[in-house]
Amino acid sequence: MPHTRRYIAVDPDDQSLCIETDIAPTPAPGEILIKVAAAGLNRADLLQRAGLYPPPEDASPIMGLEVAGTVLALGHEVTGWQVGDSVCALTHGGGYADHAVAPQGQCLPIPAGMNMEEAAALPEALLTVWHNVFQRAAMQAGDNVLIHGGASGIGTLGIQMVNALGGKVYTTAGNEQKCTDLETLGAVKAFNYQTQDFEVALTEAGLKDRINVILDLAGGDFIQKNINVAAPEGRIVNIAFIRGFQAEVNFAPLLIKRITFTGSTLRSQSFEQKTIMCREIIEHIYPHLQNGSIKPIIDRVFELDEVASAHDHMQSGAHMGKIILRT
Fold first, then answer.
1. CA 228: distance to chain centroid?
2. How far apart, in whole angstroms, are the C-alpha atoms of residue 50 and residue 171?
3. Domain enclosing residue 225, as ranges
4. Which residues lie closer than 8 Å to 82 by C-beta, 6 or more apart?
5. Is-contact 22 3, C-beta < 8 A?
6. pLDDT higher than 80, residue 1
7. Same domain assignment for residues 66 and 83
């Protein structure tokens, strides 16, 4: 018997949000149907709601890129999962609902001792950090790593992942309390970008030309500063441009220091690429999740019908860690 699904719809005229009801999707071959307990919010959701980040043609038009819940049904060719298993997953859209499907290669076990809200905070941040810091930027133990936006879901998990694999993390955040909290979380030093120039601060600390990896979601005026502090053979990866897509940049240091400057989005990558990320995360990061040395930071949990307030909270920038919807 088909399941009824509640999901969040966007009014195309005024971008307001409301709960609608329809029939839950049937899992296609290689997919898992999940009874969603919690879903993670991401800045991409705000962009999609505003019409600035349309989903791929083969994706669900419903917002939501990560969920945690219980396996409800299996599509043909699914192996390694059983109905009733606890799971967290990177979805191809459709996470703002109480039923969602996900490709089996993007499904992850819930680490021991984690609740559903914590598990829903994992998939997007885990894959984003793993792909950009460890796959693209090839971070090695002993590297100095600068993570901008350290108080975000990506930043808070990224600081812990880099620490767990032997890097030394420096970060930026928007107020003193966040900086203090990020140093407690494991950053060697957190810089308040509202009152400090991180380039000047790193230079005064003797770290100019010694930052091996930079994960940047800011862009704009940070682009030049990143190039200036990067080490010879440094790797800079941009995943967003919150401070602007355009900047006047002197690229001479890029040549002199042989810097790799790259960027990516997670959503545009293939299921096969994401499956590889998940396998590597299970091998290298899951031991640290299982023993509790890496743990997602949850800022607030909202109910599904409070989604508009959850979006407002994310837009304000006041959060520290992940914002979660409970379905």
1. 26
2. 29
3. 129-263
4. 71, 74
5. no
6. no
7. yes
